[in-house]
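Morning, I've got a small favour to ask if you have a moment. You're getting the sequence in one-letter code plus the fold written as tokens. Thanks so much in advance, here it is:

===
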Amino acid sequence: MSNDVQGYFTKHPVFRISDFASRPGVGSRNPRTQESLLAHHVRVGHLIRIRRGLYATVPPGTNPAAYRVDPYLVAGQMTEDAVLAYHTALELHGKAHSVNEQFVFLTQKAVRILTFAGNTFRGLSFPKSLMERKRGSFGVVTAERMGLDVRVTTLERTFVDLLDRPELGGGWEEIWRSLESVEYLDVDQVIEHTLLLGNATTAAKVGFFLDQHRDALMVDEKHLRRLRKHLPKQPHYLERGKRESGDLVASWRLIVPRQILERSWQEAV
């Protein structure tokens, strides 16, 4: 193995063939030659082929069959524009109540769902409302993981996104318990992202959660007033696709399941 190739593998625990081929000194620019080179390194145990065009480096002296590839890097390298989001972002930030075997990322590319090493990797489109406003990258930051940069939504954006699409958060108990572990949020950023999404039900859900946690998150009445201007005209269910029985929280025009209002999961502790 040439020093250039070995050096690249060492610094890139997960990589796309397009990135590998663009680096000077790693070999021919011919795509077939590059694929043959990487296939050779798969055969001799230097690499693991995750899917076509995506590889993981096996540390020296490690059995490829026993090596666990970091799933966050897999998700973050699935496409050039991948952004870890929803429960996956919450996990990366260390705020998820429990781990999930589904890894979600945002992308403008069409990507098939991938199952690898017991995990599922799912690419979703950026929210249409953000793209129309050319704000798809709002609340996206870069985090370092195993020497590589991965893009991930901030805690503020993740907070709103989970309330907006709870089906990607592992259920209401998981979402509530996870979000209640967050010690600090830039509430202005939370409000801005909420309004960018342009969804009245989401505005109500965000307002309801912030109202419940005013002291812990240092929420001012001015924040809540901004959200109240965008509430639905009639009461909505917390999850519109699931008309789960609950109590009306009139101030936010939401029908909220009692398990959330009463935090029923605390009784089992």
